Records
---
Amino acid sequence: MKTILTGLRVNSELHLGHYLGVIKKLVALSNRYSKTGYEINLFIPDLHSIITPVDDDLQTNTLKNIKYFLASGLELNDHVHIYRQSRVPAHAELAWVLNCFATTGELSRMTQYKDKSAGKTSVGVGIFDYPVLMAADILLYDAEYVPVGEDQFQHLELTRTLAERFNHRYGETFTLPLAPKQQVEFMNLEAGVRIRDLVNPEKKMSKSTPAENSKIMLSDSPEQVKKKIMSATTDSFGEIDFDFKTRPGISNLLVIESLLKDEPLETTLSRWRGTTRYGDLKASVAGTLAAFLSNLQSKAAEIPDADVLAIFPEGEAYANNLANQKLTKVYEKLGLR
Ligand code: TRP
């Protein structure tokens, strides 16, 4: 059994970077591989969500975000398993076991931890331990394929290290996920569709940027989209061209247009390159985006909560079954059974 597994975070309102960088790709991946002999585990890492106080309603966000996946064309079939981490107790249990195999040195070297703890004398243990729970999420299902962004590569490497360490001591127990480089190759997720911040296009679009005009939320109205795109930072070359190094703003708009139109970047570029029509390009992107978002929003709005809630029982039964078998095997090896 070949498994593709990934965690869909639901802490925050989703923005365009999430859609183009994650949702769109995962939906394509799932639709394709669920029909060609793979099991697809898409789970909500809700225990990961609580490493920082959750101000939004986790339950509502979970439903809302799954609706966006469904509205984006995610097909459900017997090989697609959607579940909530907190409904599969083996995740937390295996995380404890793996804690006993991870070192403070390893966890201290995680970039995400270093970023979140920079300048603080003390941070929550959950932030420190986050990657170990993530390793458990993956290893419980022997998932080889784990499509994640570059920011998670280090956690994937740690997962491999912990699996190897356990296997070395207790015999073959866990399947190692592929190394990040092979993940990228396998899934042909051309590393890094990185949608940029509209105001400061040197940076990627991020939920934590306070400036409202910096990001397009999936819930934005056509008016908001228009206002934000028309005021996006471009450049003063006077002529449109594509180059993320020297003209990140306009390049970002070209990428957005090409991805939403599902056309090669070259095609989009051929319409605009060499022209001086910055305003026209913005108007075109705003139009494409506004139409795209209203369509997505109305599709999502048509899905009743009950339909989403009805998806979990199958996924959670499937997950508990596999996860408990793996956990039992681990406990046996450790002498706990
Ligand atoms: N850490 C991932 C993120 O921040 C989410 C996640 C949790 C995950 N557990 C996972 C992703 C297991 C892949 C596999 O986006």
---
Amino acid sequence: MVYMADTDYRDKALRLVAEMTLEEKASLCSGQSFWNLQAIERLGLKPIMVTDGPHGLRKQAGATDQLGLNESIPSTCFPLACASACSFDVDLLHEVGVAIAEECRQEQVSVVLGPGVNIKRNPLCGRNFEYFSEDPLLAGEMGRALVQGVQSLDIGTSVKHYAANNQETRRTVIDSVVDIRALREIYLAPYERIVKAAQPWTLMCSYNKVNGTFASDNRWLLTDVPRGEWGFEGSIMSDWGATDDRVIGVHAGLDLEMPSSNGMNDRLVLEAVGAGTLAEEDLDQLATRIATLILRSMDALVEGYTYDAQAHHALARKAAEQSSVLLKNEDRLLPLSPDQDIAVIGAFAKQPRYQGAGSSKINPTRIESAVEALESLGLGFGYADGYHREKGADPDETLIAEACALAAGKDAVVIFAGLPEEYESEGFDRLNMDMPASHVQLIERVAAVNPNVVVVLQLGAPVELPWRDKVKSILVSYLGGQAVGGAEANLLLGHAVPCAKLAETWPLFYEDTPSSLYFPGGSKSVEYRESVFVGYRYFDSASRQVAYPFGHGLSYTEFSYSDLHADKDRFERGGRLAVGCTVENTGTLAGSEVVQLYVGLPDSSVYRPRKELRAFAKVELQPGESKQVTLELDDRSFAYYHEAEGTWAIEEGCYEVMLGASSADIRLKMQVQVDGDGKEQTLAGLFEKLPHYFTLPDGPLEIPDKEFEALYGRPLPPSERVPGTPFDINSTLNDIKDTKAGKLIAGQLKRQTQAMLGDGMSDDVAAFIDASINDMPLRSMLMLGGEGITRQMVDGMVDLANGKTLRGYFNIWRGRPKK
Ligand code: BGC
């Protein structure tokens, strides 16, 4: 196949659009089916397929859904983003991207729906397992590498969920209230990095509102910023059912409504063009972008392509090895030696928790458990379940006693524990950071009979670790994908050496988290009062103790840092500063170290975190070997977003450049004089207005209403629904649950889902469905109801909820679809 240059696809698309009827152009505004774009066969435009993502393919051959319910064809489940981000390894992410693209090629999929680069604002977000980091540079770099890997084979990506979608609770309607500086520096930054460096074929806009406007209607978010400022050339699709007002959306820059509203919204677009309320030029631009996407996708579809499933499994294992973080390792208990008398405890060792629930749920080509892998490495060991794998939150005395009996007297005990499936999913958030009592008690009781305990954690997000001082070693696999067991076995036995670092802080207690008082917000909005102080940016600046800091991770070998130097002692705007040091492997095993570069400005006149990650590099070293590591800084490394000026600004000053093995383990430090741009003068009075952001007082981060309002720059919207305000199509079933209409609709939906899925629903799926139904805005009925539901019928339901019974029934009756 001969590929054309990007501009040629665009030129060809422009020619096709010139030949399209208005109806054809409008038809491109939404999908043809759940996973396919609209075709225009007469012009040679095929119905290309897009599908989830992000860490492998979820292509459904039969019944479709976005909940991860119906089966999909087998594909490789690579480590999830929560894990792979800990590798800090852009080459690895690129390689995984290539492998995912190969699977897309075989399955004739044109765009994979990922990566998800939302920031981990709060550890309870149910979908954190699908996201990379609390740090925008790391999230952006991991996403960038994955996108470039996938797109190197001419398969598209959809970077999601754009933007400020940092919780699952009421995700479809919540208004994320975020000050512009936090938006720019934290929440938009990963997208900006990826767009500028990798030109993803598509972005996926999120369900929520961003500062009062649904992402799908938000021209500032969809056009002004990505296209106007960052140079984004691709197209933007909605998340599934995330389209609010389609006509406003077309003008805002939302190219594709997915999956579709059965032609209803396309007709509204047509009418709006006819009535002159929507410029035909907006529709032409949309059609050009979609046609460009289809044309380039069609060229990449090759018949008969096959990938090597075994090689992909091996890559998944390598990636899991590179992604598992060794949190502690007292007395060098790890690696274990095959001569030791070992006990392996915990049902996760036999049946691993290796992926999350929801739209990213993959049907893996195989699953490798730790027990199976340890056996195949020739290790002899005793095994006990310790807890029930399914519905096993309550401790089982018999299983614990059995585990203790096995553990007593052994040279070492490895306990596999973590969070079972029903604890984390797309669709709802966790309620606390607890592990199941059955896992906690097992660890504590076994640790009481044996001093040499290793805990291997399989989970999608941090938990509180009340037992951490009672065990010697902790290895976190996160959700390591289908080969997690093989990776764990290799790491435990020292066939692989841990090298990953935490991509998020593990707080001591949930209450320490900067957003803990402001998550998940009210029924209407969630206020990001902590502003830029997300994750380590807060813990480090407020000198708050944590269980394990961002960037932390041990190895079986040691590294020393020396000879910090920079190529200039003064940084001039627009320039580059190369910072280097020597890293030496001072231990006895080959290993890799992630060198992290942080920048801070101690006496800044704007509030800012004490240090921020500005570059990193991973270096592999043989025992005794040393290498030069050079990292580059540019304007952005020193800048903050100056809201009043609407631009990035650099404050003049003497900045600290710090190189370290974690955010809390700085090994080398130097000062660099940086030229400013004089903009800071306009910031006088900031301290008086926003004192808490400068001082970060002790205790949970509490920002007074007035102060956050001053930061936000306009009155805060009510966070709860004001009683008595009428319901509308964006009211959720939860909002109207006490009305007759609410009870009727919720009952009907639950019956339908039950009928579709039968009784064998697992707890995670049941909880996801329940949350999805409760938080569903009424307008989503248009997507779910297929041809059977019209806008007038939904208006009728709103009338019913508002107590306008006659009008409601009339609208529902009159709105019935014409036969
Ligand atoms: C999720 C997206 C996903 C889409 C399609 C939505 O519910 O938020 O991440 O790509 O469904 O499955």
